[in-house]
Amino acid sequence: MREFLKPTRVTWIIFAILLATNAGLIVLGFLTFTWSLIGILLFQIGWLYASFNFLNIDVMGKSSEFITAPNLLGWMLVIIGSLISLALYYFISSYISKNYYDYKNRKMSR
């Protein structure tokens, strides 16, 4: 039996499919102006940033504009949120890959 998080060919293929599907949905959202699809990107990138902003921790830049760029802490939270999303995609692809190899081994042993 293969280890759970061991990178295999199937794991990378599934990971690439998940990323391509995610990117495709986001591009489709921008092309059709469907905010529910664009929200996928905004949630994956900004959930941690929005959480800290909700707790009144300063993550915004100093500007009088309605939408401001994040400060250093805000950018770090955006990057960390993105890395967590990528790690979640890798765990999902590893789980699917493990089940694929388990099914393949059971089928060959019969």
Descriptive tags:
single chain, mainly alpha, elongated
Would you write up a description of this structure?
- This protein starts with 8 loop residues before the first helix and ends with a helix.
- 75% of the residues lie in helices and 0% in strands.
- It is mainly alpha-helical and 110 residues long.
- The longest helix has 38 residues.
- It is built from three helices and no strands.
Instruction: Write down the secondary-structure element order.
Output: HHH
- Supply Rg: 19 Å
Strand percentage lies at: under 5%
Given as residue ranges, the uncertain stretches (5+ residues, pLDDT < 50) are none
The profile of the biggest β sheet is: none
Q: How far apart, in Å, are the first and last alpha carbons?
A: 16 Å
Q: Please count the helical segments.
A: 3
Mean pLDDT over the residues: 79
The helix fraction, in percent, is over 70%
Which structural category fits the helices and strands? mainly alpha
Count of individual beta strands: 0
3D shape: elongated
